[in-house]
Amino acid sequence: xxxxxxxxxxxxxLSVAAALAVVxxxxxxxxxxxxxxxxAPDAPVAPAASPAATAAPAAKAASGRTTExxxxxxxxxxxxxxxxVVARFxxxxxxxxxxxxxxxxxxxxxxxxxxxxxxxxxEASFWNAPSVSQGAERLKSGSPYRFIAESGLEATSKHVGxxxxxxxxxxxxxxxxxxxxxxxxxxxxxxxxxxxxxxTAPFVGLFGTVWGIYHALTAIGIAGxxxxxxxxxxxxxxxxxxxxxxxxxxxxxxxxxxLVRRNKNAMELVRGFGADLHxxxxxxxxxxVKG
Length: 291
Hints:
Blueprint: H1 2-32, H2 51-63, H3 76-82, H4 85-126, H5 132-138, H6 144-157, H7 168-187, H8 191-223, H9 228-290
Helix pairs in contact: 4-8, 4-9, 5-6, 6-7, 6-9, 7-9, 8-9
């Protein structure tokens, strides 16, 4: 009986020791691993977040940041700083052509506007004067109409000596025609430059293009491989030269054609004035001879 009691007591002690060991081992495991929330057996399990969903907020946050502006290493500034003497000289020629073309276009438009104002002034005041000399004095100095009127008056006063042997009609007509041709020559000033720029600027740009391609091939040969960083600069230089040539030539050609058309309209008024002046001077001389 005592033996059975001892065995029961020993078994109880072993059971308590085993329980304490299990509890201690569980406490150590809870300390080492992070605690996980308890989930009910029947509760639905939430799916794990995907990498795309995690990256979306980060991308959205990054989009609100200020974008850094990177300078273009292949622009005009880089072309001027990195180009050789030939590239700079070619670019300088195109710039001079462009400045000269726009200067001529603007000045010629202003001169043609003045000729239009002077034509209206001659129509309003010259033909109402009692004589040609008084009508010429009413016109402003520098007016082509006053120059033509004074040339006609000078022709009538110089019809003496050897010139007197020339028919008066032909002499007055020749003098007025010379004056008209002089006016026409002044209206053509600068148009030859526009025509030259319009015909040569594309070829100057093409020369710059060929020179840029040559530099690209040289860079490829030195590097031994056709990488984009080796050829981007020279190819960009070639394209800029092509664009510059076209940008200079197109306004010059359009401006030339436009100014020629405007000159034609202005000279029609000048020739009409000269024809009327010729008739007036010839009639005045005939009346003076009769008187």
